[in-house]
């Protein structure tokens, strides 16, 4: 889908706001970048083809405005109450990134978006809050961080079990991955950058796959899975890769985090993360196995699939890359 001139302008300012936040030398500049990012994303959400876009845009604006006001309020406590200021700032960043226990807005906003906007919300919109959060977490430890990691892991795992809408499933999956990313931030900056890069690529490939099938519900995948065996394999491998099932590519960053958490003796947090990963694999498998095994007796031919079949080998190679070179990333670290 080609972007209009106005959409390209807002996407450019959105990227500029993200770059300003992560490269600023002061918290005021980071706040300005977050506001520019917010005001640029609101027009991108609005769509005439989606009746829920206005509701999603209003919810997103109110939540992000609340997070920005908490950041401004935390700045007033910097001189006298430094610990309270850091606590409020961390809570505001968790709210902006959609991590538990401030996750309540994330699934409902995701449900009202189209797949291209879902990709932006799951990937680009998390860069600035997570980068700023990595600066805060290097200060003295706060009790809110372990609580946020454990809560995000449990909420993301349990919340997606009974969901049948694909965008809500990816929303709870993103909340669960936030727990892994915050754990990676506690370890080192390199670990969370590697994990976030893999998460962005895999989740983007799945959103592109669902957008290509025009699927928003599990039943839509069942109706479309009979079109092509290539589509079945893509759905199967991409979902299991996002779940971190070995030996798919998504297991590589989790493998690195598991090893680092063992070496730093974070056994309780690691146990909760692994238990939540098993629950997330359950609802990934529920989608993947039905899309892979159930077929329609009617044979359907689609020119659209033939025209875009060149994407298949690249997406399959990326999701199977963990089979080929897992030791490459061990050498990097």
TrEMBL record:
Which InterPro entries is this protein grouped with? Complex_I_Subunit_2 (IPR050175), NADH_UbQ_OxRdtase_chain2 (IPR003917), ND/Mrp_TM (IPR001750)
Q: Does the keyword Glycoprotein apply?
A: no
Q: Which residues cross the membrane?
A: 57-81, 87-106, 144-162, 169-187, 193-212, 233-252, 264-285, 314-332
- GO terms (BP aspect): mitochondrial electron transport, NADH to ubiquinone
Gene Ontology MF terms? NADH dehydrogenase (ubiquinone) activity
Q: Which residues form the NADH:quinone oxidoreductase/Mrp antiporter transmembrane domain?
A: 24-279
Q: Which reaction does it catalyse?
A: a ubiquinone + NADH + 5 H(+)(in) = a ubiquinol + NAD(+) + 4 H(+)(out)
Q: What GO cellular-component annotations does this UniProt entry give?
A: mitochondrial inner membrane
Task: State where it is primarily located.
Answer: mitochondrion
Keyword check for Kinase, yes or no. Answer: no
What EC number(s) does its UniProt record assign? 7.1.1.2
Q: How does it sit in the membrane?
A: Multi-pass membrane protein
Keyword entries, A-Z:
Electron transport, Membrane, Mitochondrion, Mitochondrion inner membrane, NAD, Respiratory chain, Translocase, Transmembrane, Transmembrane helix, Transport, Ubiquinone
**Cellular location of this protein?**
Mitochondrion inner membrane
Regarding protein family, the annotation reads: Belongs to the complex I subunit 2 family.
Q: What does this protein do?
A: Core subunit of the mitochondrial membrane respiratory chain NADH dehydrogenase (Complex I) that is believed to belong to the minimal assembly required for catalysis. Complex I functions in the transfer of electrons from NADH to the respiratory chain. The immediate electron acceptor for the enzyme is believed to be ubiquinone. Core subunit of the mitochondrial membrane respiratory chain NADH dehydrogenase (Complex I) which catalyzes electron transfer from NADH through the respiratory chain, using ubiquinone as an electron acceptor. Essential for the catalytic activity and assembly of complex I.
Name of the protein this chain belongs to: NADH-ubiquinone oxidoreductase chain 2
Which organism does this record belong to?
Penaeus chinensis
Q: What is the lineage of its organism?
A: Eukaryota, Metazoa, Ecdysozoa, Arthropoda, Crustacea
């Amino acid at each position: 889908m080609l972007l209009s001139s106005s959409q390209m302008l807002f996407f450019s300012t959105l990227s500029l706001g993200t770059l300003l936040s992560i490269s600023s030398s002061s918290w005021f500049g980071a706040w300005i970048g977050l506001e520019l990012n917010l005001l640029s994303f609101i027009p991108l959400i609005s769509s005439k083809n989606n009746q829920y876009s206005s509701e999603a845009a209003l919810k997103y604006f109110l939540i992000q405005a609340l997070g920005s006001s908490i950041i401004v309020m935390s700045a007033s406590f910097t001189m006298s109450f430094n610990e309270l200021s850091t606590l409020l700032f961390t809570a505001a960043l968790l709210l902006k990134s959609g991590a538990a226990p401030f996750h309540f807005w994330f699934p409902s906003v995701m449900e009202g978006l189209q797949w291209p906007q879902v990709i932006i919300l799951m990937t680009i919109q998390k860069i600035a809050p997570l980068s700023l959060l990595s600066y805060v977490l290097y200060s003295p430890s706060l009790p809110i961080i372990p609580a946020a990691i454990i809560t995000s892991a449990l909420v993301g795992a349990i919340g997606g079990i009974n969901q049948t809408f694909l965008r809500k499933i990816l929303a709870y999956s993103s909340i669960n991955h936030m727990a892994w990313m915050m754990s990676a931030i506690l370890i080192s900056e390199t670990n969370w950058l590697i994990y976030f890069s893999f998460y962005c690529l895999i989740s983007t490939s799945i959103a592109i796959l669902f957008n290509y099938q025009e699927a928003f519900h599990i039943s839509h995948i069942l109706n479309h899975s009979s079109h092509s065996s290539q589509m079945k394999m893509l759905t199967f491998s991409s979902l299991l890769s996002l779940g971190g099932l070995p030996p798919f590519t998504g297991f590589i960053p989790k493998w690195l985090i598991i090893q680092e958490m063992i070496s730093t003796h974070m056994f309780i947090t690691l146990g909760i993360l692994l238990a939540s990963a098993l629950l997330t694999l359950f609802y990934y498998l529920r989608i993947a196995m039905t899309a892979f095994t159930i077929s329609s007796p009617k044979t359907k031919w689609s020119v659209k699939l033939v025209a875009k079949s060149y994407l298949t080998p690249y997406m399959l190679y990326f999701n199977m890359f963990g089979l080929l070179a897992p030791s490459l990333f061990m050498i990097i670290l």
